């Protein structure tokens, strides 16, 4: 009941009760409580306790006062007010009944009963009580009469909506039962696409909501609305109603369901623990609650490990925890998924069943694994850990799962961008890195570096591909590159009838890929032979049409030579004249980016 309304009613009654208390004080004899207090003293202190919100103390004083004078009907009303404030509805109604036995003309008691019945969902009794109050309206205050008329209208409206709710739920339940009997595996989708059923579910939710506005503790309205929300696919709304039902009528099986949904589906460990603790508090010997609590604590410990290792950047340890405790066994993610499928989604037999053999995770949540925020979080962690460890092949299956649910996930986009880079799909890589960088608010240095590298690679792909010219993969080592160069040089050397242009391309490619430093620059997307990329660097990378030989020189030269030391093929890439004492490529440009 509304505390303000209770207090208002209380203050209205204080006047007459004070007068009666004074009369009683003048006439009462030596009757006192065990504490030595008179009836009037007990009433006075009870009034103070009640108006200051000390309802338990007020209740104790009212009990003592009624023990001294059981015929004081107003004290029953006051004690009923304290009981309602403490949530003891049944005892409060008993006091109101006793009051009406003592004084049937006390109309306010009928109004109070109507309020209580309406709140508790007993709309028929509420209608009867408010009618009796209005039948005595000549003795009622105008304000109370106005309130009663509004309450009567609200009750009539709620009764009408209750009928609509019941009809819509009955029709919807029949369709759901039919779908489940036909094929439990496809029932969820069948319910989702059944337009007639969805219309009934919407009507049910709207009507139940109207009932609950008048009668917030209406159990049937709560249950029906939860069912209909589930039919509509609104699991969170259904869970909210189940949580309220669990508070109104504590149920072991319902607490188990709420715990399972909270942790395994919504990834809310605190809510899950609270439901299990409530279950064990009401039934300490309940084996299912105890088992569920132990399993939850085990998983919570694992998740804390993951969190701590992740926060510390220890991705190898993260990967190790994710693999699970047994070599060759299930990963943590696979273990939890199996538990959801094999335990939580299977029919429950015995005392823990909700309705019949309904599983803890409702039958219509057949996609519970796909919905699970807990499993999704573990999948994201797998993706992130393998990405950080440069284990792209291991990362991609997890990252693809992440992207199928969240196309904007930064780590998964980054991993996919790296996969595009590995397969030389540079345009796709630029797109993914750009999207990921944008999601960070353009503030992640690592992502910016990846994006720049992809952009350079894309530019190179549209100009020269030195690996393709030599016919080697990007993974080729120095020995493979040199061997490919020698074979191509023998085939295409102008002295052997080859093309000078082709030989120039071969020399140019080998001049870059045959030098570790230049190759690193090229792999990063910076072509050392691109004049636009030099930006004033000294020297160049030579004239590709000059063929020389000498100590350390190329095999098909015609004289001259570079000395020992330095890059053995540097003289093939000079813009004329002897080789400089250092490589132009050694003066790499420094990237600067303003993150302000």
UniProtKB/TrEMBL annotation:
Q: Where in the cell is it found?
A: Endoplasmic reticulum
TPR repeat start-end pairs:
39-72, 73-106
Q: Which InterPro entries does the record match to this protein? A: DnaJ_C3_Co-chaperones (IPR051727), DnaJ_domain (IPR001623), J_dom_sf (IPR036869), TPR-like_helical_dom_sf (IPR011990), TPR_rpt (IPR019734)
Q: Does the keyword Signal apply?
A: yes
Question: Where is the major localization of this protein?
Answer: endoplasmic reticulum
Matching Pfam families, A to Z?
A: DnaJ, TPR_16
Record-level GO cellular component terms: endoplasmic reticulum
- Gene3D superfamilies in the record: DnaJ domain, Tetratricopeptide repeat domain
The name on file for this protein is: TPR-like protein
**Organism ancestry:** Eukaryota, Fungi, Dikarya, Basidiomycota, Ustilaginomycotina
């Amino acid at each position: 009941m509304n505390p303000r309304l209770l207090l208002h009613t209380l203050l209205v009654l204080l006047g007459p009760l004070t007068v009666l208390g004074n009369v009683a004080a003048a006439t009462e004899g030596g009757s006192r409580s065990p504490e030595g207090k008179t009836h009037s003293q007990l009433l006075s202190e009870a009034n103070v306790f009640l108006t200051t919100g000390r309802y338990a103390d007020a209740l104790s004083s009212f009990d003592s006062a009624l023990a001294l004078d059981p015929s004081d009907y107003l004290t029953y009303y006051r004690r009923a007010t304290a009981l309602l404030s403490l949530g003891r509805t049944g005892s409060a109604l008993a006091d109101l009944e006793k009051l009406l036995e003592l004084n049937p003309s006390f109309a306010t008691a009928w109004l109070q009963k109507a309020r209580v019945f309406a709140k508790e969902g007993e709309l028929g009794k509420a209608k009867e009580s408010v009618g009796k109050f209005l039948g005595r309206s000549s003795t009622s205050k105008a304000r109370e009469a106005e309130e009663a008329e509004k309450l009567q209208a609200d009750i009539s409206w709620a009764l009408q909506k209750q009928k609509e709710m019941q009809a819509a739920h009955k029709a919807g339940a029949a369709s759901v039962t039919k779908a489940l009997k036909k094929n439990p595996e496809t029932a969820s989708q069948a319910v989702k696409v059944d337009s007639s059923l969805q219309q009934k579910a919407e009507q049910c939710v709207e009507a139940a909501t109207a009932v609950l506005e008048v009668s917030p503790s209406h159990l049937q309205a709560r249950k029906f609305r939860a069912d209909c929300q589930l039919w509509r696919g609104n699991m969170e709304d259904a869970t909210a109603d189940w949580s309220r039902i669990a508070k109104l009528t504590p149920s072991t099986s319902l607490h188990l369901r709420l715990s399972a949904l909270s942790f395994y589906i919504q990834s809310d460990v605190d809510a899950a623990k609270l439901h299990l603790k409530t279950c064990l508090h009401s039934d300490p010997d309940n084996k299912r609650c105890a088992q569920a609590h132990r399993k939850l604590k085990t998983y919570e410990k694992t998740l804390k490990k993951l969190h701590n290792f992740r926060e510390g950047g220890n991705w190898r340890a993260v990967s190790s925890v994710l693999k699970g405790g047994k070599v060759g066994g299930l990963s943590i993610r696979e273990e939890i998924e199996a538990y959801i499928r094999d335990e939580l989604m299977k029919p429950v037999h015995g005392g823990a069943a909700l309705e019949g053999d309904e599983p803890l995770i409702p039958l219509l949540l057949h996609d519970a694994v796909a919905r699970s925020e807990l499993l999704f979080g573990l999948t994201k962690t797998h993706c992130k850990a393998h990405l950080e460890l440069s284990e792209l092949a291991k990362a991609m299956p997890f990252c693809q799962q992440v992207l199928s649910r969240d196309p904007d996930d930064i780590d998964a986009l980054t991993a996919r961008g790296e996969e595009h880079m590995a397969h030389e799909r540079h345009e796709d890589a630029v797109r993914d890195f750009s999207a990921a960088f944008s999601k960070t608010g353009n503030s992640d240095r690592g992502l910016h570096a990846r994006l720049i590298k992809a952009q350079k690679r894309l530019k190179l792909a549209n100009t020269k591909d030195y690996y393709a010219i030599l016919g080697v993969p990007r993974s080729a080592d120095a020995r493979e590159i040199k061997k490919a160069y020698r074979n191509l040089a023998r085939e295409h050397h102008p002295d052997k009838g080859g093309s000078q242009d082709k030989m120039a391309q071969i020399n140019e490619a080998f001049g870059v890929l045959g030098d570790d430093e230049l190759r690193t620059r090229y792999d990063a997307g910076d072509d050392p032979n691109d004049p636009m990329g030099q930006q004033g660097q000294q020297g160049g990378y030579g004239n590709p049409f000059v063929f020389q030989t000498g100590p350390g020189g190329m095999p098909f030269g015609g004289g001259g030579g570079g000395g020992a030391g330095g890059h053995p093929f540097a003289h093939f890439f000079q813009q004329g004249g002897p080789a400089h004492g250092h490589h132009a490529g050694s003066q790499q440009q420094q990237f600067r980016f303003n993150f302000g």
